[in-house]
Design goal:
The chain is α+β, with helices and mostly antiparallel strands. It has two helices and three strands. A three-stranded antiparallel beta sheet has the order 2-1-3.
């Protein structure tokens, strides 16, 4: 297995019985993941405000995770072709 850093967001909304969560992307280094956290938080805040949710709480985390080498190989092949993978672009 290979270590990757998975960026995940947790969102709490009033009147909702559970936290909403969404995984966004895996990075090869913790530093690369940490650099994307503010952008993701801003994206989520803007999206929730557009939905009319003016009261909410969001936190993002970079979690260390194991990935199988074939998963990373496919990612590298698609990335070299310039194909946008699901979750790669925050605006997707």
């Amino acid at each position: 297995m290979t270590t990757v850093w998975f960026l995940i967001a947790l969102i709490a909304l009033p009147g909702v019985p559970a936290l909403n969560y969404k995984g966004y992307y895996a990075y090869h280094t913790e530093e690369a993941c940490e650099m994307q956290r503010p952008s993701l938080e801003n994206f989520i805040v803007n999206r929730e405000m557009e939905k009319g949710n003016n009261t909410f709480y969001v936190e993002t985390y970079c979690l260390e995770m194991g990935a199988f080498p074939d998963q990373l190989k496919k990612y590298e092949e698609e990335n070299q072709k310039g194909i946008s993978l699901g979750g790669q672009s925050i605006g997707a």
